[in-house]
Amino acid sequence: MTRTAEKIDALVREDSSMAAALEAIRDEADRNGGEVQWADVSDDLTSGQWGRLIEKGVLVDGDQGFEIADREAYDRVLDGDGDGGSGAAADVDIDEEESSWSQWDKLAGVGALLLMPGYWFDSIQNVVGNAVNIVLGPLDAALPFYAVILSVALLTGLYSSLLQANLMNTEVMGKYQERMKSVQNEQKELREKKKDAEERGASEAEIERIENEIEKAREEQMEAMADNLGMFKEQFRPMVWIMLLTIPLFLWMYWTIRTGAIGAAEETVVMPLVGEIEWQEGVLGPMQAWIVWYFLCSMGFSQLIRKSLNIDMSPSSA
């Protein structure tokens, strides 16, 4: 919705009789080649309504009278198709409650933060490692360690995909993107409108009004960019749950390798393009072999799971 359409909507909401006045102006403009004078419509609207239309920039100076500033937007609003144009930021309805975190989400975030120091402190690694080992110890005893990492990667890929599918509201994310795109489209329309006005030699007052509208559109863009924090919150919401579940598994793998619990026979692995290498040996810079193996397996399984379950994480405005 353009600025002219917004102004007309606001005027109609303030004064219900304004709709009939606008219709009368349109009919008279059609009869007079696009221009209208006060004397032509004085029987159909009050002088106050006429003044408001000029004040708001709905009517602008013409050759012999006044003309409608944006006839296309004017017609859309009067014909009940006001939403058919480009959407202004205010027209994209985003319910902030939809992207708010629940108490459980916040607790999951706190829990993930409390587990993070385990990467640096052996005491935390030992506590978490021993606790997780109660569950994964039998798996480690039954499978070679590379297969254990592969199994953990499959598990993390599964619950990561399911958590993202159920906790990330792609519709809300799509609305945030739609609002930003709407503001950008509005700025483009206003710049084109200003260019057209300059080419046809419009009055300085009309050009100044368009420049003011462009400035307001810029302010809307800045507000929309600030509001994009809601989209970041929506994206990060499933991440706290994924971290809460993944950090203990990660610490357990690190603890198992560091303490030598996997046994001497499994301390090395043959990796593609690398050859035989120890689990704690660097492969990609400081990244150790077990971390690289885990991430390769995890990314592969995540893609397969999303394809199999038809999980689409792209933003949607539907």
Protein architecture, described:
- The chain is mainly alpha-helical.
- It folds into two domains: about 1-85, Orthogonal Bundle (Arc Repressor Mutant, subunit A), CATH 1.10.10; about 100-170 and about 230-310, no CATH class.
- It has twelve helices and seven strands.
- The strands form three sheets. The protein has a three-stranded antiparallel β-sheet with strand order 1-3-2. It has a two-stranded antiparallel ribbon with strand order 4-5. It has a two-stranded antiparallel ribbon with strand order 6-7.
- Helix 1 packs across helix 5 and helix 8 crosses helix 12 (about 290-310).
- It is rod-shaped and about 100 Å long.
- The two termini are about 20 Å apart.
- The model is unreliable at about 80-90 (pLDDT under 50).
- Keywords: Membrane, Transmembrane, Transmembrane helix.
